Structure formats: C-alpha cells, structure tokens
Fold this protein.
Amino acid sequence: MRKVLALLLVLAVGAGFCAVLAKIPFGTDKVDVANHYMRKGVEETGAGNIVTSVVVTYRGFDTLGEVTILFIVAIGLGAVLFVEKRPAGEQKEEASLIVRTGSKVLFLPIILLGVYIFVHGHLTPGGGFQGGAVMASGFLLLYLAWPRHRAGRRTFSAVESLAGVAFVAIGLLGVACGVGFLGNFLPLGTRYALLSAGVIPIIYVAIGLKVGAELAGVVANLMERE
Amino acid sequence: MTIIQAVLISLMLVAAAATSVFKDLISAVVACAAVSLLASVLFYLLDAPDVAMAEAAIGAGLTTAIFVLAVVKTQRHEG
C-alpha cells in the first residue's frame, strides 16, 4: 500500500515537472536582461567571462547572500561538532604510504590550481566558488593523509573572517565613491588582461579565500569529531 | 542530443538507481559521486564549464568525502 502511494506521488511530481518543462521555451530568444548581459557585459564590466560579470557585478548582492548562507552553514556545523579537548591517549591510524606520498606531491599543485581558478575568474571559466572548492579538496587530501595533525582551524576562521570583511568593505567603498554597493570604482584597464575589470578580481580573491577556508574548516571539523 | 549525451544521461540514470538500491552505504555514496561526475561532464558538453567545475569539485569531491565521513562514523549497512 505504501509503495503504491509512493509510486503515485512520484508519478504526480513527474507529471508536474513535465507540464512545467513543456511550457519553458528552451533555446528561443532571450529576454531583454539576458540580451543586455550578452551584448554589453564585456564592455560595461571589462570581464571577459560573462558568467563572472553577472555573478560579481550585476548580481553581486545575491552573491553576498550566497556567501552569507555558506558562512552560517559553516558556523552551525562548527557549533554542532565542536570538541574542545580530545580525550588523552587517543590514537589515530596512520594513512598508507601511497596516500602520504601522493598528498605530498599533489597538495601544492591542487592549491595552485584553486588559486589560478579564482584569480583568473574574470577571464576563464570558474571563479571564487570553484577555486575555493578545489582548494578545500586539497586540504581534505592533507587531512586524509595525516589524520593526527590538525593544523589550521584557527587560521581557517581568521582567513574566512578577513575575506568576508574585505568583501563587504569593497562593497561599502563603492557606496563611498558614489557608484552604489558593490559597484565598480576602479579603472577597467586593458580588456582580457589579468589586472583588469576593476573590482572583480579583488572580490573574487576574497570570495575564493572565504569559500576555501569555510569548506576546509567544515571538513576539518567533521574529521575531528569521533 | 548527440550519442555521447544520450550515453551519459543513461549512465546517470543507472547510477542514480544504484544509489537507492545499494544496501552498503559506501557503495551508495560512490554511485552518488558517479552521478555528479557524469553530470559535470554533461555540463561541460553543454557549454557550461563554470557549472561543470563547481559540480566536479563540490558534487563529486567534497560532498562524497563528507558522506563517507558520516557513514564511517555511523553504520555501514542499511538495516
């Protein structure tokens, strides 16, 4: 009986999805806003990657909201999982030689890739969120290889807080310069150069560090908890 | 839809079904990661490299690690 009910429910939800998807005109003309972003985006923001120009400039306030949500999630997890002092005499198993050697070789390239992704956020695909996640996966590898060492949780929270403050401070500087919250008050520079697109690279570095420190802190908290 | 996309989508369906069928939770988590990985390849083929990167790093990487940690610290088999 329950299975029949579940099947009926799934079918009803599926029918709803189909009905909605059938109405969405995929691949037809875009609305005015999307057209504006595609035609004027590069010119107005100086960012070669239109996705970034939307995420950081046109919809910068939404991005601040997303970063805030992630921050609250990390705080909540830290509060639930926090252990002040681990019981004495507790021994963790050492990881195998292959994992330890692999992490030594791979850790720095992974961090470098993450930094590359968010520093070039305005030029190539990817940005603060992707780069931060890649960096956090590097720290995950480190924790898997050396479960006994727990360096860095304080550093993570410090980096996270500073990056968050930097993000909001840049937004407020925009207000002070008269271009609105998170507006661009720097010269756009040469298009497609690394130092171009005004405040976008600065904001993306802040977002990248913040997301990376937050996710790495989440992983560190989870590994710590027995 | 090209043949590659059709193959990817059918593999995703198989992996998604496997996720719900497996009783061993670690296997289920790996199948779940496979769904994310295939989805990220599909996003790349659909000209959305930004989304593909996020899906690969978060969906296939970090989420899997967090699930595995949770399973290791609770029970491995669904009872």
Q: What stands out?
A: Residues 3-73 of chain B form one domain. The CA atoms of residues 40 and 52 of chain B lie 4 Å apart. The mean pLDDT of chain B is 88.
